[in-house]
Amino acid sequence: MTNKKRIIAVIAGLILLAVMVWLALGSHGQKHGKDTSSSQSQTKAATTNLPKGVKSTDWDLVLINKQHPENQEINFTQAKVGDKVVNQKIQQSVIDFMAGAKAAGYDTTLVSGYRSIEYQKEVFANVLANNEKNGESEEKALAETKKVVQTPGSSEHQTGLAIDLAGNDALAKYPGLTGEMDQFTSQRWLIDHAPDYGFILRYPKDEASIKETGIDYESWHFRYVGVTNAKYMTKHHLTLEVYLKALKAREAS
Ligand SMILES: [Zn+2]
Q: Where do Low complexity bias regions lie (predicted)?
């Protein structure tokens, strides 16, 4: 009897020990996952649970950047918002976005909409000529110009789907458009509410995004991608580059 009791006690003890070890490992594993790989795993989840019915070839997801230039003028129906031109498909969204800001107490200025490649060439040539006039070597003048002006063919403005939109007070302080405009609540309102109108802040501030887009933080440049995409991308911190890559992976599988 005593031997049996001892055996039972030992078995019970072992089971208790096993449960404690299992619990300890379990909670440790969870903690570890949350602490170190949460952003990575979130990105992975975000790129595998993409919105249904969205395709990488949709008109509102066209990608133009330095790696994907488009050297032919893009044909689309143009429409005006104030004195600026945008793709007619997004005209109402731009109007609504600005009206939303106004209703929240912020007057805004549409600084830029569609820019043709031809116009971009002019801007580029002017800035380059000015840099050369200032006595810079040809090589340095070109490098300086590329820092501030997008090479013709690689500006998103040629799609008619990108806008530079600024709170009037932010623009008054930073007429040359700089990231610091986000010190103003007007600009922050635009950044926070852009997805409600189908826009994303196209060039975010964090290092990972800058690496993905190849463009420094622009607190004023918004890109139309449609409400579903904009909300999803913003919620999961996905740049257009990463979002498109994920959509293409889904289409290939
Ligand atoms: Zn812009």
A: 36-48
Fold of 56-115+155-252: Muramoyl-pentapeptide Carboxypeptidase; domain 2 (3.30.1380)
Active site residue 218: yes
Beta bridge partners of 84: 81
Give the tens place of pLDDT for each residue, 174-220.
Answer: 998 999 999 999 999 999 999 999 999 999 999 999 999 988 899 99
Burial letters for 59-78: b for 16+ Cβ neighbours within 10 Å, e otherwise?
ebbbebbeeeebeeeeebee
Cα–Cα distance between 116 and 114 in angstroms, integer?
7
First-residue to last-residue Cα distance in the chain: 64
Sign of the torsion angle spanned by Cα atoms 64, 97, 231, 88? negative
Looking at residue 200, its amino acid is I
Beta bridge mates, 162: 223
Give the distance (Å) from ligand 1 centre to CA of residue 114: 9
Find where tokens 């600009």 sit. 187
Pairing of strands 162-167, 108-112: antiparallel
State in Å: Cα 222 to ligand 1 middle.
7
One of 118, 144, 218, 251 is an active-site residue; which one? 218
